[in-house]
Amino acid sequence: MSQNAEHKSANYNLDELTQALNSGTFIQTRRMLNSLPRTEVAHMIESSPPKTRAVLWQLINSDIEGEILPHLSDEVQSQILSQMDTNEVVAAIEGLEPDDLADILQQLPNQVIREVLDSMDHQDRQRIEQVMSYPEDTAGGLMNTDVITVRPTITLDVVARYLRRHDELPEMTDNLYVVSRRDEFIGLLPLRKLLVSDPSITVREVMNTDVTPIHADVDDSEVAQLFERHDLISAPVVNTEGQLLGRITIDDVLDVIREDADHSLMSMAGLGEDEDTFSPFSKAAPRRAIWLGINLLTAFAASAVINLFQGTIDKVVALAVLMPIVASMGGVAGTQTLTVVIRGMAMGHIGSNNSGWLINRELLVGFANGLCWALVVAVVAMLWFNDTTIGAIIAAAMLINLVTAALAGAVLPLLLKKMNIDPALAGSVALTTVTDVVGFLSFLGLATLAYA
Amino acid sequence: MSQNAEHKSANYNLDELTQALNSGTFIQTRRMLNSLPRTEVAHMIESSPPKTRAVLWQLINSDIEGEILPHLSDEVQSQILSQMDTNEVVAAIEGLEPDDLADILQQLPNQVIREVLDSMDHQDRQRIEQVMSYPEDTAGGLMNTDVITVRPTITLDVVARYLRRHDELPEMTDNLYVVSRRDEFIGLLPLRKLLVSDPSITVREVMNTDVTPIHADVDDSEVAQLFERHDLISAPVVNTEGQLLGRITIDDVLDVIREDADHSLMSMAGLGEDEDTFSPFSKAAPRRAIWLGINLLTAFAASAVINLFQGTIDKVVALAVLMPIVASMGGVAGTQTLTVVIRGMAMGHIGSNNSGWLINRELLVGFANGLCWALVVAVVAMLWFNDTTIGAIIAAAMLINLVTAALAGAVLPLLLKKMNIDPALAGSVALTTVTDVVGFLSFLGLATLAYA
What we know:
Two copies of one chain form a homodimer.
Chain A: H1 5-23, H2 26-35, H3 38-46, H4 50-59, H5 62-68, H6 74-81, H7 86-92, H8 98-105, H9 110-118, H10 122-132, H11 139-142, E1 149-150, H12 156-164, E2 175-179, E3 185-190, H13 191-194, H14 203-206, E4 214-215, H15 220-230, E5 234-238, E6 244-249, H16 250-267, H17 281-307, H18 310-315, H19 318-346, H20 355-385, H21 388-418, H22 423-450
Parallel strand pairs in A: 1-2, 4-5
Antiparallel strand pairs in A: 2-3, 5-6
Helix pairs in contact in A: 1-2, 1-3, 8-10, 15-16, 17-22, 19-20, 19-21, 19-22, 20-21, 21-22
InterPro entries (chains A, B): CBS_dom, CBS_dom_sf, Mg_transptr_MgtE_intracell_dom, MgtE_N_sf, MgtE_transporter, SLC41_membr_dom, SLC41_membr_dom_sf
Transmembrane segments (chains A, B): 289-310, 316-342, 363-384, 390-416, 428-451
GO molecular function (chains A, B): magnesium ion transmembrane transporter activity; metal ion binding
């Protein structure tokens, strides 16, 4: 799916680099590294274990360090920043865009932030302080201040002459921003309209006004969805007074989209969405240990249920052989439902008007598949242990557990969300607890009744 | 994370719509529906159970159906198309962009495709046939042919006059494409450069030539990574002769990025990445049943292992109570490793040069956390059953299984990939089989030795 030439080339470069590092040809390596595209270097750093990472960073010229930092994930960024002294940090991040700079500053100790801000000129400091006044995961935290603004009353000819006074327009400039005298956002002047229109007409006559600017407080996931729904390349950001603060561009939104999409996958395994693949043992182990500890509690809960039925197992030891089947099938079926619902929620598909239908369908699917595989398991169990009763018991337990799994898989994430708990993180633990407990309880409980 | 105002508004609209439908005010509903942004309507359709979906589609004016179809997922598209007759389809898809049209045509029976193509004029047919000659998941399948080309020898002033002859430039036009007399791609002329440059100089003097065009055969995931790495809005697509065929724009790439990111999450639960949240029972049930069947086989494998130790369980029934803990903790630890590795692979982080380091770290983490929780479990088991031996046994089994889980979680996806099997799909089943079998085998095996 995702192995491809780019990756191969990155890994090829990395192979070459590893060789070069091992053979000690540092000069050559340094030259190669500094001539690669910055995003490629960032990818190589992300793809390296900690020690190689440190060596790579040493080999990168200090004047391009700042261009590489924004392309690294937060975790890798902070790892690298922690190994630099304040002067190096100040030198590296000079000239970065306000949103990138704000992201990096937020990872540094307060004293370093102070020093960096003091080293800037007044206007730059004001800009960065404005971006930093919004949380990282809001429109304000995502925005840049590199907007080109025009007044509605001037002609396109004047706009064209004004633009020609620039050496270069900022990257990803698809629109000029039309603002009032008081900096209130009025509309957009797309370059692709400017270029085809009669130069003698005014901005007001061609500008787009059916654009809703994004408020600086809006959540970054919402910004991402706006970009996706409306095929945006950039979007204006305003304050509560409607004044233009800056713009958000699609390159920064892509990171949000990827992190949001990774969130469900990683959270379901108790991991963070920006988990560093090559995080050192000392960081990886404690994080994972906590997740294992939580799961251990649920495993003990299941054991406590089994413990209630020691007598029955003692009588019919075949029950111990078969009982994991019921629990495991419940876990698998429940995880399918849970995954569908969590992804549906993440995509904004599920609301109060359709969750009922969804729960019903899941119950039906659970019942139908429960019935289907219950019969298969029953036949196998009967033949295996030459015991009709055990077949009937496992079939009934399987059906009960698969219906329960469907219900839990569909309802738990909705409930957790209402309680403001991340369903992707808590859902899978909660689900396994339910399917284990119900699986063992129904199977061993029915057996106790049958073999009493 | 992802619940937000946009969603709320979509669901709010959907609530209103449901009410309107129920109260039978169709005219009002129809008016509202047809005035909403197309992407919003598509989102409402995706968020509806099958029956509501059919009603919604009936209420949509036929002249905007074509604008909504491209925003639907493949599965929902084909569901809706299957309910339309050929004339309706032909009317709906008139005027769509070639890439969207090709996607939709590929879902139709051959005879309908023929009819649609016959209904087009020569040039349009040629364009669409060109896009359809490439698989949907390649650069050729993603591209559109709405490029504006210029020659390197003309002046920017001539370019400006040429552009003014257009009523409108295509959406997402950030660059003009510079081609030779034989349509070979030479370079890009960014609008943001055109606007700031002296009108009297030639295209050749300002164009970007350090752009590598994308070959039409390139995989769509690779295209997505190129866009992400190089912050592209659009990119040229060429054939093997280097001739410009069309361009790919970021809006189409976003869908690829989202699907790729969803792939791991969905596949690990045996689901497709474009699974329709509201697929009808008749579609959802059989798909899930297959996955359950595969998992049933692995559950039977675990039971077969337990079956070997019936005698030991008969002697010490506490073993039956504790044995699921060992298997379950192995499954959880292994899933964590598996998730980290599968995501690392999807992001192109893992190659031959760093997989060794990764496996080592995972083994270390597995050993450390195995040791940590083995001690906890041992103490609990000893106190619970007042039996030192059982504590020692479960601790040893836990350690063995967590190290095995780490090894399996790291190595299985790498192996599966080498065998060209999707690691996200097959990895979790293979992993659970290993952790269940090794969990029961080590725990019950050690117990058999101890209690012999």
